[in-house]
Write a structure and sequence with these properties.
By secondary structure, the chain is mostly helical. The chain is built from 3 helices and no strands. The chain has one domain. Helix content is about 75%, strand content about 0%. Helix 2 packs antiparallel against helix 3. The two termini are about 25 Å apart.
Length: about 120
Amino acid sequence: MPVLIPFFGFLGLCFGPIVHQYYAFSDHILPVEGGLMNRIEKILMDQTIYLTVKCSIYICAVGLLSGDDFDTCKQTVRDKIGPIVLTAWKFWPLGMFVDIRGLQLVQFRQNRGSLK
């Protein structure tokens, strides 16, 4: 179990700055103050582009760190990404809408995984 702490710490250090930059970029192109349509577009962007890319990288990184070769990692991503995206669509859009709507100030909004 203690081996998992540095492993997930390493993944957090890798993803934290990227996640922070993604949310800063999405706030720049789709400001929270833009109203309901901006919120919907931000949720769509998060639940399609961001979710797919981040989960694919995460699954591949876990596989590579576990000793799998790159082809095995690519196949694992292909097998798992569809169900992950479908499951995420059942829960996260509502949570993200509340997060974006309820916390208007960027510095107080939760940036999942951010080191900010």
